[in-house]
Each structure stands twice: as C-alpha cells, then as structure tokens.
Amino acid sequence: MADIISINGKVAYSITLDPSIWIFDDRKFKMEDFFAGAGQMEEKKEKEDDITRMGRLWDKELEHGSTPTKQSEQLFVEKKQISGDYGMPLVPFLRNAEPAADAIALICRTETGEEYHLPLAEAEKAILCFAIDGKPIREDGPVYLYYGDGRNMDSPIRQIISLTVV
Prior knowledge:
Oligomer: single chain
Structural class: alpha+beta
Shape: elongated
C-alpha cells in the first residue's frame, strides 16, 4: 500500500497528497455528516459557533485574565483525543493542480490495477475518507473515495495510488 497519492496528467502542477497529515487540516469533516447529507451546512454552522465561542472567551479573558496553565493543558489533552471517521473534499486539491481547459475526466488508479473513470465535474464533488476511528487508513488505503452523492457509500474506491486528469 502506498501512503501517498499523486495527482497528475493534464494539469499545470503535479501534486503529491499525504493523507496522514490531513487530521490537522481545518477542511476535514466527520464522514457521518457527509453521509447524513449535512456536510456543508453543518461545517458552516460549526465555524459560526466557533467564532462566537472565541469571541466570548476573548471578552472573558479581557475582563478576568487568562486561564491558568493547568486548565489550558487539560483542554489541550482533551482536544488532542481524536475519534471518528474523517473525510476531505477532493476539489481543493484538483483546483491547486489546475486541470487543463480541455480536461474532461479523472481516472482513479488502484494498486490492483483497476481504473475508475469519473467526469471532472463529478470528481470535484468527491470525498476522500482518510481516517477511520481517528486513525489513518492503513489497510486498503490511504484513502477511500466516495462519490459526492454517496451512491458508493457501501463500496468506496479503495487502494488508490494515483489520480490522473485526462
């Protein structure tokens, strides 16, 4: 199994993806939100809630001073414990690779030699699941590709080694 995935083909920039570090990326989301159809809506609501909460904490610290170190350390340890299945949208990576104007599809190549063809518009809606139970996918990984409409929810594309724009 490869730990990285390349985006290549009819692109201005070939890109290498390392899904093992995506757990720290702000664009990640829980896969259950995606499967429930709430992915985008829930993400926006969480960001708004976070901004409101940060504003309240800022006001509190201005009035009463900062939180003692022991409490800060405890909060950090609690945040560090990550669980659940996580995914990332494929579209930001495709956009960074800058597909050619005449590009029409994306080919997902797997370790077993299989190829899955997706129209480029559909590929931009795809989701890459990179963590199961808070841990990187080792078996059949490093990512599972789900179509944006969730139709392959029970059988994602696994063992992806490259994504080729054609």
